[in-house]
């Protein structure tokens, strides 16, 4: 491998290197101790130093130096691990450069000429390879070469990055290198003559953790179904842990069939995945979650900046994120101040030159006419200033929205209320107070999507948004208003297209329409039900992958109460596709991931509760409805709407915080609970009594609360939702979106693996009754079948094509057929592919193995018989697995192919000679049977040609020739030869035939053949030999 020339001092290097070849300008050197026999101490010492002190990843056994006569300075121009490669490099230098160097008079000219040639070779080699995508191509090329040589993975397996670290074996650390590729993580270490290496597929990783032990304070623990591995001493543990989690997450997303888990476009092609891309994707995921942006948004630029905040009269430092459609600002302290500006609000982009504090010149100026916001960017430093114009009035925007054509022109709450409050009572007074607070807030902080989102607005939201502003602010916080403005008439078109169509989704919608807020007057009449039907049906038509899921009806009902119908649809899109990703699909993966995250947060934030309840899964099951319905199904309506207010402002973070606050408020009672049912009653009773501040109704007793005879503990009366929300911010407000996203990435691995285990159990349960394989063998075969090609899409993971089947055939078949195994595998695949879709299911594959290993002799012979029925004949017969119609008979050519297959199966067997003699005897016997049958059907005809063919076949078997027989040709070859046979005019020969029963009876006359087919075979041994890539193996 050619290297960018690097200076080497020979007087220091010669202590570790031995010169193998040399001339006037070049040296070929070998690492001292490499290749020496006898295990000399020098070689062991140098090997240990290379493993422990290898900080630049360039210590390889061989290298080539460029030297100048009379100089002590040389340059490394090539290195490698194989002497053959280095000899080729040496020969190239001698043949192409050595003679040309003699014409140079100056040493510097010689060095420059050779360096330029080597750099040109490197450029050609790097071009088109993945090393060109890395920040340090040369180091990556060296690591890639080591990866390919050490582990022998397919050439398509792309290396992503490497880390120097220690792998712990008990209390013994092994210093080495961790290689992370698309489908595997691999480790290699060579220390004091001991080599340790292993390869683990990402598909086998079940859990990732950062742990501390008595020996090391911070380690990465990787757990699989078979082993546990600990890694430490990373230069950057946070970076390594993040990359490991991302690669495992990507691999498992490919394995799981879930409509809501599609990979980002950049990650769909494994050739695009590099360390830099993973870092960009991690940042993009964080930005999308922080600002609840559409999942299709791409991150374009990131810059440190300061924003002028008029309300604080100062600059707020933070980061500016630019995406396809938005400018997003987040303060250094997450949640302190944020800003979201849709680029659709930027109609004019002039250029101006201003002077700002003397050092800021030539400023690019972007004027936002609709919002009065200025964006100032200097060309000399990443400094930005947003100056907000307080003369903004949204009257025109409100009027424009009022004129927009919608199905319903007003929110349902405008027509229907829970009660009609007296203007003089406390409820109306409190609403007026909150409205005044918001009206005072808007001029200072802005109104609309681009308002400053600060801690003050968080307090206003926690108090509860007034009903008159709730719909507008929900649209603002979710940025659904921008989507609505950019797609006018979109909802109306969906309604027109979807109405009248019938599908499974529409049937489920009709069933749930009257279950959505049945106690609210708005949904006790035709108008409200019709609006809900239109919104849900339009969304199912827009996103058929999600269609309709339970809990969407409750959410859509609440949205319709406070927004216009078209706005409610836009909010539903924002919630389902941006704010709660992966929640609304067939497996609710997103909700399950968040439940797993919630369990870890309970252990971290509520350790006393976790100590009393070690198994948190019951609490997780209870809280699942909290996340799916945003507490709408468990809290009184007016209290739950306040939670929705917080959700639209803070996203899923608000639900995590509130869930922790609920458990914290009931921690004492939960610790004293006797079982899961009592814990459920405690939490249900508490949530029932959480009231809205202005709710005048007395606490409603729980339906099951009939007294102390049911053992229901007393619940706290008159818990205010505002107090509960304030408590959640006070105690758990330090929880950040970045923390949540990191936890989601890690826990998604566990959830996906749990789904994979469930799928495996279901597949084995279906197949087990039909086969005789032991559960252990069947599970091992499933793993080979499922993970044989982890790069394939999930749908194809449980079915294999012809190429994959041939590979599995070579691994598991008990009888190989020499050079013709590939043809027999081709015939077997054609037989098993019953539906002719060029794919074989696991059930078909397991049935085939069961026949080979556990069925009686007659079934094994029946299978071989079926393999040699022509495709035309098998297509015209009823196709039932391993069932043969008794009326079909072999023609002579097919019987010869059958015998040839048996002959090749016996090749290499310890009893090879006896088996060959037995099959020759059987062949003669069957041919005689066929002759008798043919004569009886064709009395008076001449059959001398058939007898000659029989003698020829018998002689052929005895001689042992198998190279050119048609049994090992393809089906097309067989048809061609058959056509040639027919054209010869031998019409009577085609009538020669023998049945399956006759062949079986003839085979039973030879005990050697009976013993061969009835000999027990161990499938476990075959499977264990082929699990090297799926187990953690060490070689010493």
TrEMBL record:
Keyword Iron (UniProt): no
Subcellular location per the Swiss-Prot or TrEMBL entry: Cytoplasm, Cytosol
Domain Rab-GAP TBC: 464-651
Gene Ontology MF terms in the entry: calcium ion binding; GTPase activator activity
Chain segments carrying region Disordered: 693-714, 937-990
One Pfam assignment: RabGAP-TBC
GO biological process, one term: glomerular filtration
Domain EF-hand, residue spans: 820-855
SMART domains in UniProt: GRAM, TBC
Residue ranges with Basic and acidic residues bias: 955-966
A GO term from the CC aspect: cytosol
Composition-biased stretches (Low complexity): 981-990
Keyword tags: Cytoplasm, GTPase activation, Repeat
Protein name: TBC1 domain family member 8B
Annotated source species: Oncorhynchus kisutch (Coho salmon)
